[in-house]
Each structure stands twice: as C-alpha cells, then as structure tokens.
TrEMBL record:
One family name in Pfam for this protein: OB_ChsH2_C
Gene3D superfamilies: 6.10.30.10
Name of protein: Thiolase
Superkingdom of the source species: Bacteria
Domain ChsH2 C-terminal OB-fold: 58-125
InterPro entries registered for this protein in UniProt: ChsH2_C (IPR002878), NA-bd_OB-fold (IPR012340), Thioester_dehydratase-like (IPR052513)
Secretion signal span: none
Organism: Paraburkholderia polaris
Length: 150
C-alpha cells in the first residue's frame, strides 16, 4: 500500500532531473551539486543558480531532514484522490545540503500529529507506474545518517 492512490500521475524525468529520478529507483537520494561554489541546489538546472557555473555533479545525501512546512489536503485535487482521506503535502528541509527543500509527503504520521520541525528521513514508495518516489517517515532525532553529503 502506498501513501497516495496508484492513479496519481508519476514524474516524467527530463534531461536535467533524470539522474535524480534514477537515484530514487536505486533507493538513494542524490542532489545537484556545484563544484565551483560547492553548493547544493534543487530542483536541478543546467547551471548553478548561485554562481552560474556549468561544472555540476550529483552527490548522494543522507535523506535526513525536518518538516519545514506542510498543508493537509481534504479535497480531491486530482480524480485519483476522490474518496481518499486527508493527506499532507510537506516541504522537507534536508539536513546536510545547504538550504535544499523537497516537496513530498510524510507517510507515517496522522495529520493531527504532523508538526513543523519534526525530524524525518527519506524512504521510497512506488507510484502508479512502479517508479519509486522519495517520501519521508518520522525519524528519531538520534538516528544515524544513511548516506553522505561529501
């Protein structure tokens, strides 16, 4: 069982974000990295949004973060959500990658327990087409990192 219904649209990777989605299929979280100004950024772009460099790469990161903000959806914004209970759309501030935030869901927390600042860690769930999506679970603040941002 997945957090959102299987009829939800799945991402369609493009040239800039295909490595991000491929890493998700390998159950790792990789974020775009600028070798010149040594900063991470997301969403991926062809050039660094800070210094304009084209010397870019991808680095695996821990996937640990905190809930930066969230909203609870009660209305179906897509036909697949009709009859589906409340769901959250959360912005996750990743711990070890500058000011990078991912829009996702926290899948194991009831709406009334979700809170800003809650520690979370990435997990991967299949979308309707089988593609793995990064989602988040509650994390014990003392949990060890699962990856590296170096």
């Amino acid at each position: 069982m997945t957090y959102l219904p299987s009829g939800m649209p799945a991402p369609e990777p493009g040239p800039e974000d295909a490595p991000f989605w491929q890493a998700c299929q390998d159950k790792t979280l990789k974020i775009r990295f600028c070798h010149d100004c040594t900063r991470y950024f997301h969403p991926p772009m062809p050039g660094c949004p800070r210094c304009g460099s084209m010397d870019l790469g991808w680095k695996e990161v821990s996937g640990n973060g905190t809930v930066f903000t969230y909203t609870i959806g009660h209305h179906a914004v897509h036909p697949a959500l009709k009859g589906h209970g409340p769901y959250n759309v959360s912005v996750i501030l990743l711990d070890d990658v500058d000011d990078v935030r991912l829009v996702s869901n926290v899948i194991d927390v009831p709406p009334e327990e979700l809170s800003i600042g809650m520690p979370v860690t990435v997990c991967f769930e299949p979308a309707g087409n089988g593609m793995l999506l990064p989602r988040f679970r509650r994390r014990n603040p003392s949990s060890e990192s699962t990856g590296s941002a170096r």
